[in-house]
Amino acid sequence: MNYKIPRGTQDILPDQSSKWQYIEQKAHDLCSRYNYKEIRTPIFEQTELFARGVGDTTDIVQKEMYTFEDRGGRSLTLRPEGTASTVRSYVENKMHGWADQPVKLYYIGPMFRYERPQSGRMRQFVQFGIEAMGSADPAIDAEVIGLAMDFYGELGLKNLKLVVNSLGDKESRDNHRNALVKHFQPRISEFCSDCQSRLEKNPLRILDCKKDRDHELMTTAPSILDYLNEESVQYFDTVQHYLQSMNIPFEVDGTLVRGLDYYNNTAFEIMIDGDGFGAITTLSGGGRYNGLVEEIGGPATPGIGFALSIERLLMALDAQNITLPVKKGLDAYLVVMGEEPKKYAPKLLHDLRAKGLSVDTDYLDKKMKGQLKAADRQQATFAIILGEEELSQKMVQVKELEIGNQETISLDSITTYIKSKIEE
Ligand code: HAM
User: Fold this and answer.
1) How far apart are CA 311 and CA 278, in angstroms?
2) How far apart are CA 286 and CA 279, in angstroms?
3) CA distance linking residue 106 with residue 128, whole number of Å
4) Does residue 397 have a pLDDT over 80?
5) Secondary element (H or E) of residue 283
6) CB contact set of 184 (below 8 Å; sequence gap of 6+)
7) Strand (E) or helix (H) holding 44
8) How many CB atoms lie within 10 A of CB 72?
9) What average pLDDT does the chain have?
């Protein structure tokens, strides 16, 4: 039996995981600057949370969830996204009672969707997302978008396109909904069965249909922007004003609807332009969800957030030939020759590592040449050479591999010597 990795998943091997660590560290640092605190929620939740939260007419809930029954007969689902879980935790832990509102949280972790796998579309992918709950100030919308743009910008990505839309408040959405029903109803039989059932339940979802995307009624459908009431227009204007003041370029696109049901007012996506990126151009998405906390059983509380996947971010970095400044090799490789030095090596390694150096050695009894080759492969900055004679004098040879110069250093001062050289 040959075991294979499940479709739509990947192993992240060591040459890639250093990039992941760099990106994750960037997310931690950025969130700390913006004062978002990390939350870690379970990988699975009650199925009902997503059905309610994400919305039962969405593709995610209807077609893409990994749902299973546990041995106690409970229906559980691997989380397809992070917002519903974060809001569940906000309600369950009564965060609405915390003195500091909005509560600003972020998460980095795997999400699961049973989608047709293709480049940039995985069945398990890692989202970095943030959620701010407890304020309806449009300045928070601008902050969330600003953080997202900064994250990409600080990693060096270019040709980003920020697209914003407003889905309006409840009154605006109801009016738009009626207009959509009126628009599609006479010819709904020309649409797929999903769209036919969406007409009554959630006509906005029709605009998101992948099958009927080219139907002529799609392009002529009424735009939400024509149905925003005064308050929603005002809100959207203020968000745009803040973005302008922050020098963040954007486009307004009245057809941007997003694939999850909880949004109102601000919705946005960040896309990437340019060759070599294939069919998938959306890097991240988010928006405001003022009804979600209440929907999930908490007090009426506004919220906004966004999420991106690290997989798509890495694709974008590759497409733009951006190399991340990840630390490559070891500080030093310990080359050991002879019986006594071999016995002494574990203690020396242990000491050097305890003092903060990254060091490795040979465990296969290689000859000197083989050990030096290994030091090169490990991209070690220094080789520390310990032979019988050196050990008897409590000395080592320290060779700077790139330059080739070599010095004799006492065993006690290896760390100080290497650290000072590295600082130089
Ligand atoms: P979403 O648009 O479904 O929104 O996903 C956000 C991002 O996750 C996408 O833009 C994309 O980068 C990534 N993503 C989604 N599906 C896949 C996949 N199959 N493979 C690789 N990457 C994928 C949400 O999930 C919302 N929870 C975002 C949000 C947070 N809204 C408010 N707060």
Assistant:
1) 14
2) 20
3) 7
4) yes
5) strand 282-288
6) 191, 195, 199, 203, 206, 217, 221
7) strand 44-46
8) 6
9) 95
Average pLDDT over residues 285-299: 97
Nearest CA to ligand 1 atom 31: 286
Please give all residues whose beta carbon lies within 6 A of any atom in ligand 1, as ranges: 81-83, 113, 115, 120-122, 125, 127, 129, 131, 259-260, 282-287, 305-309, 311-312
Residues 58, 261 contacting (CB under 8 angstroms): yes
Tokens (6 digits) for 171 = 């009154």
> How many whole angstroms from 290 Cα to the centroid of ligand 1?
19
In order of their start, the domains of the chain are 14-169+229-319 (3.30.930.10), 332-423 (3.40.50.800)
Compute the distance from residue 286 Cα to the ligand 1 centre, in Å.
8
DSSP code of 379? T
pLDDT-derived band at 209 (thresholds 50, 70, 90) equals confident
Angle of helix 14-33 versus helix 138-154 axis, rounded to 10: 150
Q: What is the C-alpha separation between 50 and 59, in angstroms, rounded?
A: 12
Model confidence pLDDT, tens digit, residues 159-168: 999 999 999 9
Return the residue whose CA atom lies nearest to atom 18 of ligand 1: 121
Residue 364 CB: number of other CB atoms within 10 A?
Answer: 7
Q: What is the pTM of this model?
A: 0.94
Q: What is the DSSP string of 101-159?
A: SSEEEEEEEEEE-----BTTB-SEEEEEEEEEES---HHHHHHHHHHHHHHHHHTT--S
**Atom nearest to 286 CA in ligand 1:** 31
